[in-house]
Amino acid sequence: MDYSFVADHFKFLFTRFLPEVINHSQEQDIRIGRAHYDRGNDFFGAFLGPRMVYTSGFFLSPGDSLEAAQDQKIQLVCEKLQLKKGERLLDIGCGWGTLVAFAARDYGVDATGITVAEKGAEFANAQIAREGVSGSARVKVLDYRDIPKERYQKISCLEMAEHVGVRKFGRFMEQVYGLLDDDGLFFLQIAGLRAKNGLLGFHFEDLVWGLFMNKYIFPGADASMPLSFVVENLEKAGFEIHSVENIGIHYSLTIARWYDNWMANRAEVVKTYGEWWFRLWQVFLAWSVEIAAQGSSTAFQLVANKNLNRFDRRRWIGATNLGERDLTGKKSP
């Protein structure tokens, strides 16, 4: 397939994309975030399924169901974080609260999730109540910049950091560092693009796809970058990176399930949101399956701790460090 820049690409690049990259004000980010994530829980449920998890799952077999893959991913996050009963967990950009509810229910932590999406928070707190953990879990409507300066033993952030923006990514990592206990762990799952030497550091095809995503699907989510960008900013903020796992192919399999769900729910989506929205997301999901399968788009899981002499690194011995090695054979929740 041939990819080329057309006039509309240049117009979008200079009139919307670059101004948003440069700005990334709090007002802009909240407005854009709510316009996307508060579109309607039924809209997202049409492809996310009953788990309502809007991030890559983790497959132990290519034939796993979407629900199994998401359960396995949530278990993997909790295992990589080495969650222990009574610890405080902060999930930044928690979506519909599935990780928050699960961690409180099955690991006994005190879990707080934050999101800018009011409808998502309402759904999340209802889910938490159904699981019977309202006393130890909650989701708050809050921008990441307004998180109170408290300390947490464990912090997770799954595919929210892309929305922070390239210019403010380093500052966000510094904020997370300040919220984490000195002996705590930080789990970051982030979507990214493959690196390439040359103009702008991207494959041309990947850049065209990224601009499509930014214009039609995730406005302002410009921090989907090569792994080196993420590593550099984590280390500059004072983190030591323990593990990095590329789960790009898991993302492709996840989105393939989302596409199947979307197509199966076409009638209801068109009835409520119209043909334009249905067809736009049909293109987005189908394209994303192939983009992730060929390595253009990927996702990384990183686990980091503060780079301090006194941090006890013996905790890694015998722990769950890499899902594709350590989760195989373990019972999913």
UniProtKB/TrEMBL annotation:
Keyword terms of this UniProt record: Lipid biosynthesis, Lipid metabolism, Membrane, Methyltransferase, S-adenosyl-L-methionine, Sphingolipid metabolism, Transferase, Transmembrane, Transmembrane helix
Protein name: sphingolipid C(9)-methyltransferase
Keyword Calcium recorded: no
Enzyme type, top EC level: transferase
Main location group: membrane
Pathways per UniProt: Sphingolipid metabolism; Lipid metabolism; sphingolipid metabolism
Pfam families found in the cross-reference section: CMAS
Cross-referenced Gene3D superfamilies: Vaccinia Virus protein VP39 (3.40.50.150)
Top-rank taxon: Bacteria
Catalytic activity, EC: 2.1.1.317
